[in-house]
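Annotators were shown the component list below and the corresponding predicted structure, then asked to write short factual statements about the assembly.
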Amino acid sequence: MRTPTMASSTAVHDLPGTYNNGLHRAGMMPLVELEDRYSRQVLFRGIGGEGQRKLAASSVVIVGCGATGSTLASLLARAGVGRIRILDRDYVEPSNLQRQSLFDEADAADSMPKAVAAARKIAAFNSEITAEAKVEDLVPANIDQLLSGAQVILDGTDNFETRYLINDYAAKNQLPWIYTAAVGSYGVTLNVLPGQTACLACVFPELPHGAFETCDTAGILGSTVNLAASIAATEALKLLVGAEEQLRRTLLSFDVWSNERAEIAADRPRPDCRTCQRRDFVHLAGEGRPYITLCGRNSVQIHERHRPLDFSQMADRLRPHGTVRHNDFVLKFWREPYEVTLFPDGRAIIKGTSDPAVARSLYARFVGS
Ligand SMILES: [Zn+2]
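Structure shown to annotators:
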């Protein structure tokens, strides 16, 4: 049996969703003076003092905080982007540490939600900006609330379903977004500038071939994803400081192992594009994900969002049936051969099966039907 390693329920308490500036709150001087912190970046001609002030007043959303999202968040937070909202539905596991640069062993041992762990890590290295954690699954029902206020949306997801949803939202609201994906040694990225360039559906009207190959099946090099995310973060900086003429208008792909590299023109929309030309937002109009979806290898996600759980009560109920641990963010329940992770809104990730029927019956039996 896998040994539960999560800390006890007393692990974490003082946790609002937003992290910033503890030193200012405490009435102390900041440890790092702003001019010193950004001095090397301000020296760079593309940014300068004015660009730095624009970054401080900027707001971005990063959807998904695995490897790509970690690097995006880390680079943009260190660069001084004033407000960063981080969305992620998952929790940190040991297999993430090879490439997901914002997390450490304690996060994995505690099964910390990635969004919360990322925001905490950011607060530790830049207390002058605001990092906001949202432990949520992006669906049509919550997309307005989760993506509102962003000047740029950044893709840290691992699936095309969510990317098409972001693409619909961005086209509808005339917001720029940056597509980034990586698997194995292959990385790809595209800037989507509304009214100017091709959108994701212009380039991939249907799910692209090979989209089903994931990090769970093909593996991934940390360097691949860090390179792809570094390029995307740089494009975001250009957007935020207004260096429009420097923005790349191609679909860029590369393979860091075979050294292949390609660019496909994406500087204008496809005339018959359903999304950005006909403005038919099918993904936004959809009911969203089905109630149950496969979620990586040998695991299933149950998208219940309307069953607020009291973890203490739930732990008491489950204890006779297996091993239970919880903190403020997740409750884990081990019962051979399954591992059930519950979130406070009732969402669950069930490991040990890829059969939705098995997952549904486990959920109904132990959480509620
Ligand atoms: Zn389009």
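Statements collected:
1. DSSP finds 15 helices and 15 strands in the chain.
2. The first helix runs from residue 22 to 25.
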